[in-house]
């Protein structure tokens, strides 16, 4: 099922018209399709079934409590990178025993909390971190289950800001260092190395880097076992790319095709940490046009979603398809190709109200004529959208709504100005 689709000229999320959601909950508004989350989880499970997989949904992509609850209810595990994310997972009823904890800078306090919660694996990113976890675990009288995060030195051919598996990355350890570290783990009483971890980057749209990484992983599992480590988990991270423009992603089954035969040889269970490939196309951001204007030859659409709501265009030159919620006559209800000329459109910059020239959602984008009050939909906004939102310009963060069939549940209300005062303290005069 196509979770977001046009019926005639109106955008729907599952069985609900997007315009109705915008009227009911206000804009800007993040709209998520529950079925999109659940279907994608099922697709991952079935593609990798031969490896008895545990999908650890990467909370950083979208940490809305309602969504975490939905995922936990469907048996998902979680990938967290902070004490805060672990706290949210637990609040949502997620099982720590299905939760992996990554991050290059875990504090002793976070390590202790995670140990007490009983996380499934710490993904360890440096020698210094091994020592820290060992010390905390011994003080707690337990053994911490760990996996070394190894950089297989493959180029994932993605944006440089979201490439992580190269030798020179701040994440993980290169293979040689990891092997030395693995030797030293044998002498650490607070650690039990039960897994191997890799994550090579994000928004990866070819299978080749995964084929390389899987081969390296299989080799390494052998070597670690040779040293005496009982490796039972192979965690290949996240990173599967999605369609932002349309047509660039690969089906999950194609990634599985290159990974499964290699990893099956290890006899390990597969853990994975998909974020974007689950959440990305399960969400859209709805906005309402405030004004239109022309400056020189440029036409601007000023709408109420800004860089504080969705920073990907400003930060990574991220491309998000934008199309009216109700498409006017004379334009296609859904263009086949957003980068080719589209009849009934003119190039426009879609910008927000924030006081920065970098506050844009799209530049020179083909859009049908729009007027004050019209609604726009910004697609593929379910991952790294709301989680990266801020209150810049003292703008309340958007509401989030979860749609299932013809039911809409508000899973986060729009912030009020009072919410924005937060824990800030009045300075005594
Ligand atoms: C260690 C780790 N796991 C999982 C993810 C999730 O990646 P993605 O959203 O691309 O699936 C990331 C982010 O790149 C990550 O750094
Ligand atoms: N925030 C990035 C992805 C970060 C990947 C996290 N390791 C994006 O929006 O594309």
UniProtKB/TrEMBL annotation:
Positions bound to substrate: 276, 312, 316, 356, 384
Keywords for the protein's UniProt record, in alphabetical order: Amino-acid biosynthesis, Decarboxylase, Lyase, Lysine biosynthesis, Pyridoxal phosphate
Boundaries of every Orn/DAP/Arg decarboxylase 2 N-terminal domain copy: 38-279
Every Orn/DAP/Arg decarboxylase 2 C-terminal domain range: 30-382
Pathway stated in the Swiss-Prot or TrEMBL entry: Amino-acid biosynthesis; L-lysine biosynthesis via DAP pathway; L-lysine from DL-2,6-diaminopimelate: step 1/1
PANTHER family: DIAMINOPIMELATE DECARBOXYLASE (PTHR43727), GROUP IV DECARBOXYLASE (PTHR43727:SF2)
Family to which the UniProt record says this protein belongs: Belongs to the Orn/Lys/Arg decarboxylase class-II family. LysA subfamily.
Subunit structure: Homodimer.
Biological role: Specifically catalyzes the decarboxylation of meso-diaminopimelate (meso-DAP) to L-lysine.
Official protein name in the record: Diaminopimelate decarboxylase
Organism: Tautonia plasticadhaerens
Lineage of the species this protein comes from: Bacteria, Pseudomonadati, Planctomycetota, Planctomycetia, Isosphaerales
């Amino acid at each position: 099922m196509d979770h977001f689709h046009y019926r005639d000229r109106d955008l729907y999320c599952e069985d609900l018209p997007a315009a109705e959601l915008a009227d009911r909950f206000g804009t800007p508004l993040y709209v998520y399709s529950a079925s999109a989350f659940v279907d994608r989880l099922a697709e991952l499970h079935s593609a990798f079934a031969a490896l008895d997989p545990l999908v650890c949904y990467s909370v950083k992509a979208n940490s809305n409590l309602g969504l975490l609850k939905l995922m936990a209810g469907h048996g998902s595990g979680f990938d967290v990178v902070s004490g805060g994310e672990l706290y949210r997972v637990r609040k949502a009823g997620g099982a720590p025993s299905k939760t992996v904890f990554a991050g290059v800078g875990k504090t002793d306090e976070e390590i202790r909390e995670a140990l007490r919660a009983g996380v499934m694996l710490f993904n360890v990113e440096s020698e210094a971190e091994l020592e820290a976890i060992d010390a905390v675990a011994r003080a707690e009288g337990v053994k911490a289950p760990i996996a070394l995060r190894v950089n297989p030195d493959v180029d994932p051919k993605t944006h440089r800001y979201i490439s992580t598996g190269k030798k020179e990355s701040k994440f993980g350890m290169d293979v040689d260092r990891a092997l030395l570290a693995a030797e030293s783990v044998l002498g650490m009483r607070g650690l039990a190395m039960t897994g191997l971890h890799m994550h090579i980057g994000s928004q990866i749209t070819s299978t080749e880097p995964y084929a390389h990484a899987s081969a390296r992983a299989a080799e390494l599992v052998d070597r670690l076992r040779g040293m005496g480590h009982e490796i039972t988990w192979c965690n290949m991270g996240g990173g599967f790319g999605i369609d932002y423009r349309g047509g660039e992603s690969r089906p999950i089954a194609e990634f599985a095709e290159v990974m499964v035969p290699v990893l099956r040889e290890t006899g390990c269970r597969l853990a994975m940490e998909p974020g974007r490939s689950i959440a990305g196309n399960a969400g859209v951001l709805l906005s309402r046009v405030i004004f239109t204007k022309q400056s020189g030859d440029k036409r601007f659409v000023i709408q109420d979603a800004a860089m504080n709501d969705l920073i990907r265009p400003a930060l990574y030159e991220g491309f998000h398809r934008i199309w009216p919620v109700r498409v006017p006559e004379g334009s296609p209800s859904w263009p086949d190709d957003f980068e080719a000329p589209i009849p009934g459109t003119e190039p426009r910059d879609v910008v927000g109200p924030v006081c920065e020239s970098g506050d844009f959602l799209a530049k020179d984008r083909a859009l049908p004529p729009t007027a004050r009050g019209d609604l726009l939909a910004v697609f593929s906004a379910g991952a790294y959208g709301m989680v990266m939102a801020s209150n810049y310009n003292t703008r309340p963060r958007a509401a989030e709504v979860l749609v299932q069939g013809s039911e809409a549940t508000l899973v986060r209300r729009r912030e009020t100005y009072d919410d924005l005062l937060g824990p800030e303290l009045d300075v005594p005069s």
